[in-house]
Amino acid sequence: MINDSDMKISNKRSETTKEKSVRLILTLLNWGYIVKNYRNENDFNFKVRKRLKLQNDYDPIRIRSCIDLIEDTENAILYFCEFGLEKFDCKSMDNRGERYLKLYGILNAIYLQISCIIEL
C-alpha cells in the first residue's frame, strides 16, 4: 500500500513529472492488490497478477523495486541540482575526492533511473 511518505512532496518545490508517474504507477499497483475472496497466498498472488495482467509471479515485486529506486534516485538528482559539486566543500579548498564521489553518484543515479524506467 502507499505510505504517506510516498505521497508527500516538499513544500518548496512542485512535483516533477517522474514523481507524478511514480505516484500513478503506485496507485495502479495498489489497485491490483485490492483483491477479495482469496483462500491462500498463492491464490492472492494469482488474482493480483490476473487483475494487473502481469505474466510472472515476481512482477509486482519488480515493479515496486523499480518505483522505490526511481524515487530514491530522483531525490539524489534533485539534491545534486540544488547543491552541485562545490556547495559543501568547506573543509579544504581542493577536495577532489568529494567532488569525484558527488559526480560519480549523480551519474550512477541517472543510469539506475534510466534502467528502471526501461524495465517498467
In short:
With 120 residues, the chain is mainly alpha-helical.
Put simply, the count of helices is 5
H-E order: HHHHH
Q: What structural class is derived from the secondary structure elements?
A: mainly alpha
Strand content: under 5%
Helix content: 55-70%
Question: Quick check: average pLDDT?
Answer: 76
**Measured distance between first and last alpha carbons:** 19 Å
Low-confidence parts lasting 5 or more residues at pLDDT below 50?
A: 1-10
Oligomer type: single chain
> Can you count the beta strands?
0
Task: Give the C-alpha Rg.
Answer: 19 Å
Characterize the biggest β-sheet. none
Number of separate domains: 1
Shape annotation: elongated
Structure description:
The protein has one domain (15-119). The protein is elongated and about 65 Å long. It is mainly α and 120 residues long. Mean pLDDT is 76; it is low at 1-10. The protein is built from 5 helices and no strands. α2 packs across α3 and α2 runs antiparallel to α4 (59-83). The protein has helices at residues 4-7, 17-32, 41-52, 59-83, 96-119.
List keywords for this structure.
mainly alpha, single chain, 120 residues, elongated, 5 helices
What is the topological layout?
Elements: H1 4-7, H2 17-32, H3 41-52, H4 59-83, H5 96-119
Helix pairs in contact: 2-3, 2-4, 4-5
